[in-house]
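Researcher: Please translate sequence to structure tokens.
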Amino acid sequence: MTEHIEIEPVGVMLKEDFLDDIGISVPKFAQAIGVTRQEIYKIISGDRKVSPEMSIRFGMFFGMSLGYWNRLQNDYDMRIAKREKLDQFKQSIKPMQVA
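Model: Translation complete:
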């Protein structure tokens, strides 16, 4: 079996590299961006994805590109899909042949 490097949900980065680094609690962050703390806790735990709307909120709060968090989520989703499905798809999908 192939060993994989752990891929952490986007919420882990949010918690460890942003909220913890600037010293803001989840409840205060949630209040600042106008969402419930439960929504943020679900993102941190990986039980919820960062939606485009949430990406805008995060981007505005942190002074970043509004699509930054959305791109991180998309990258995470693609890595998981490739890890879980790529071998199966390689066996069942044949590339189109150009004449």
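Researcher: Any highlights?
Model: The first helix runs from residue 10 to 22.
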